[in-house]
Structures are given as structure tokens and as C-alpha cells.
Amino acid sequence: MAFQNPLDSVIRAILERPMAIAVVGCSPDPRRDSFRVAKFLQEKGHRIYPVHPRCPKILGSRAYPSLRAIRARIDMVDVFRRPEHVPAIVEDAIAIGARILWLQIGVIHEEAAQRARDAGLTVVMDRCPAIEYGRLIG
């Protein structure tokens, strides 16, 4: 069976609730989508935890070398990495107790998404939270 994203009502509920969001692959470059989406989420009241192995600070927040290096509780993991990196990110998301895995547009890995679902995470794949916010909330 092909992957299906959650209903719009579930996605809306995710975006409306302030959360701690780890942005894996967050770039310090303001021209990059990962930076712009992280900034958008931050402006909407979410606490952002940038994950970038070579950058100490992004968007005024400490950046972490990996998901497992974050000591705070993370609600959602937003992934801006190529699909081949997703299985390892899913294992890290499960290990840290995240509740939501969000794979950005073009980040598609059905097996890893199913692994996350089997572990109890809500999974959104091949979507952008900033675009979904505009579509569902305005």
C-alpha cells in the first residue's frame, strides 16, 4: 500500500500547536529553504533546534551536530536531507522520543516513513510546513 499523508485536520492541528522542532539539515544561509522554513516556524511560535554538524548557531539558536545531541524534548523532526539519509534520521527520531516526523518536499522514503509510523510517530512526507500553513491556516 502506498504512503498516505495524514488528513488535513491532523496536519492543521500539528501546525497550530506550539512545539519544539528539530530542523535536520538546517542551513545558516538565509537563501536556503531550510533556513527560511525554520525562520517561518520560529515566527509562528515554535521553538527551533537547528541540526547542522558544522555550524554552532543558526537563527539565534544553538545548533546541534545531531538529533541525539539535543537534550530538550523534541516534538517534531523536520527533515531537509536527501532521502538516503532518512532511515538513520528516523532511528534517531525514535530514540529521542519525537512524536512527529516531517519530510520536506522531495524527501521521500516510504520504508523509513513506515518504520516511523510503526514506532508510533505521525509522518508527513513530501510536504512543506510553511506551504501547508498557508494552505490550511492562512
Radius of gyration: 14 Å
Kindly name the structural category. alpha/beta
The largest β sheet comes out as: 5 strands, parallel
Shape verdict: globular
Description:
By secondary structure, this protein is α/β, with parallel strands linked by helices. The chain has five helices and seven strands. The chain has helices spanning 8-16, 33-43, 86-96, 110-118, 129-136, and strands spanning 20-24, 47-51, 57-58, 61-62, 76-79, 100-103, 122-124. The chain has a five-stranded parallel β-sheet, sandwiched between helices. β1, α2 and β2 form a beta-alpha-beta unit. The termini are far apart.
List the helices and strands and how they pair.
Elements: H1 8-16, E1 20-24, H2 33-43, E2 47-51, E3 57-58, E4 61-62, E5 76-79, H3 86-96, E6 100-103, H4 110-118, E7 122-124, H5 129-136
Parallel strand pairs: 1-2, 1-5, 5-6, 6-7
Antiparallel strand pairs: 3-4
Helix pairs in contact: 1-5, 3-4
Record keyword descriptors for this entry.
single chain; 138 residues; 7 strands; 5 helices; alpha/beta; 35% helix; five-stranded parallel β-sheet; two-stranded antiparallel ribbon; globular
In short:
Helices cover 35% and strands 18% of the residues. The protein has 138 residues and is an alpha/beta fold.
